[in-house]
Design goal:
5 strands; five-stranded mixed β-sheet; binds FE2/S2 (inorganic) cluster; 6 helices; 34% helix; alpha+beta
């Protein structure tokens, strides 16, 4: 058994005793009832189960939860799909996903949303030129599988959010 203490969407959880072989996905879904994080392939291939990890230095990245023990998240700060809306208001990215009908069955959506959010935060720290943007978005979303093949709409939605706040996400030169 491992004693877990972690922060999820800004809220502290723990101490909670978990089995060493309990996956993070089962911890979120079965122990905390946070079912927004999906379970797809169960083999670290589709990233539908990805959550955001916040580093102490302000950087962030996504990680799958299906094959990673919950114990590995002890002491970490993470964000899940449940953390995007604030005070009942959808985030710009959530709104763009809806505006583009980016998701169909929705199974992959939380993973794409988390990945898109990480990209926005990266670009806010390190803006890119406009002519790099398509590649940057494609690279960021690469690895997330959508069985309903909604790739283009997800890409367009992320692009819309970036272009709507270009001063923040893009360099001034292009
Ligand atoms: S369910 Fe975790 S990567 Fe597919
Ligand atoms: S919307 Fe169905 S898997 Fe992506």
């Amino acid at each position: 058994m491992t004693t877990l203490n972690l922060t999820i969407n800004g809220r502290k959880h723990g101490p909670i005793e978990v089995r060493d072989d309990l996956s993070m996905n089962d911890f979120l879904r079965e122990m905390l009832g946070m079912t927004g994080t999906k379970f797809g392939c169960g083999a670290a291939q589709c990233l539908s189960c990805a959550v955001i990890i916040d580093n102490p230095d302000g950087t962030s990245y996504t990680t799958p939860t299906c094959v990673v023990p919950a114990a590995n998240f002890d002491g970490k700060a993470i964000r899940t799909v449940e953390g995007h809306a604030k005070d009942g208001e959808l985030s710009a990215l959530q709104r763009a996903f809806i505006d583009h009908f980016a998701f169909q069955c929705g199974y992959c959506t939380a993973g794409f949303l988390n990945e898109g959010q990480v990209l926005l935060e990266l670009l806010a720290r390190e803006p890119v030129a406009r002519d790099q943007l398509e590649t940057v978005i494609a690279d960021a979303l690469d690895g997330h599988l959508c069985r309903c093949t909604g790739y283009i709409k997800y890409h367009q939605a992320v692009r819309d959010v970036i272009l709507a706040d270009a001063n923040r996400y893009l360099t001034a030169s292009k």
